[in-house]
Amino acid sequence: MTLDAALADRIRQTPKAELHVHIEGTLEPELIFRLAQHNKVKLPYASVEALREAYAFTDLQSFLDIYYAGASVLLTEDDFFDMTMAYVQRAVADNVRHAEIFFDPQTHTERGVPIHVVIDGISDALAQARTQYDFSSSLILCFLRHLSEEDAFATLEAALPYRDRFVGIGLDSSEQGNPPEKFARVFARARELGLHLVAHAGEEGPAQYVTDALDILKVERIDHGVRAIDDPALVERLARERVALTVCPLSNQKLKVYPDLRDHSLHRLLEAGVLVTLHSDDPAYFGGYMNANWEAAFEALPLTAADGHKLARNSFEASFLPASQKTAFLAEVDHFWQSPLPAAASTA
Ligand code: HPA
Ligand code: ZN
């Protein structure tokens, strides 16, 4: 299917919120090599080209192995700052107005990088982005699910002195064999602390993991969640309870969740009334940032302008922004989609 030029323009230009992006997944090969040289970290790849060539993933684990190797070049506050600022500039170019950004502290603390280096570097860049680009953002601390719950508890404890720098916790890394219930206690603790809760579920794992993330972890949003489609009662529940699924089309394609995007469940989920949102996940690894993901979805699936408007609205609706800011962004989205197309775009 080819995407109508006027609609392509609209989806690129609409204000949108990014709710599923791992900051370590925005590290471009060029920056990986620059930091490796500067920090004298040895990489198992001879060049930027050789690293890019290794981005031929067969599943989630084959990606994670390379993603953790890439993140090993991050050592100083400046490194985290530069990575974050590079992401912000790409997001701004795609008309992302607000981002809720994941970071994986354990990937760094395991290598001896203190958690304050990670949090200060990222949050200093986001503070600068707020004034420089009027870019709104918050952080979500993710636990690596292949590690123990005890390790997650220690990470939460170490992060608490910086409680004002993040709004929630998430759960990522290898899903198979690491079910939601493994992290029941640490999620309960985070809930007591007033943190927002999200978790990756139903990416490679079954629909049951989506149900368990809701019932056991009590998460407010599900990251990916595309396999919910296998359970019609769950799809109905997601729609009824207005639980957002933060869907990442290019990630799902590259990690072979949906090798052909024409088969992707997002259109069916949207039609069933589920609050679907579209995001980039690990854009440096999966071939594109927000607009590339939106374009890929609209090219592969019979999505309309009304769907574009809805997906943009959903992204702010599902955010953890305070009600007043949410309302202001939603008004901006509505105004954008209700305005006539500029002449150049409508005749393109
Ligand atoms: N899934 C699980 N863990 C991750 C991902 C993902 O898509 N990206 C970064 N960590
Ligand atoms: Zn993810």
UniProtKB/TrEMBL annotation:
Catalysed reaction, written as an equation: adenine + H2O + H(+) = hypoxanthine + NH4(+)
One annotated GO biological process: hypoxanthine salvage
EC number from the UniProt entry: 3.5.4.2
InterPro entries: A_deaminase_dom, ADE, Ado/ade_deaminase, Metal_Hydrolase
All copies of domain Adenosine deaminase, residue ranges: 15-335
Cofactor notes: Binds 1 zinc ion per subunit.
Cofactor requirements of the protein: Zn(2+)
Site (Important for catalytic activity): H224
Positions contributing to substrate binding: D282
GO molecular function: adenine deaminase activity; zinc ion binding
GO cellular component assignments: cytosol
Residues reported in the UniProt entry to bind Zn(2+): H20, H22, H200, D281
Function summary: Catalyzes the hydrolytic deamination of adenine to hypoxanthine. Plays an important role in the purine salvage pathway and in nitrogen catabolism.
Family designation: Belongs to the metallo-dependent hydrolases superfamily. Adenosine and AMP deaminases family. Adenine deaminase type 2 subfamily.
HAMAP family: Adenine_deaminase
Protein name: Adenine deaminase
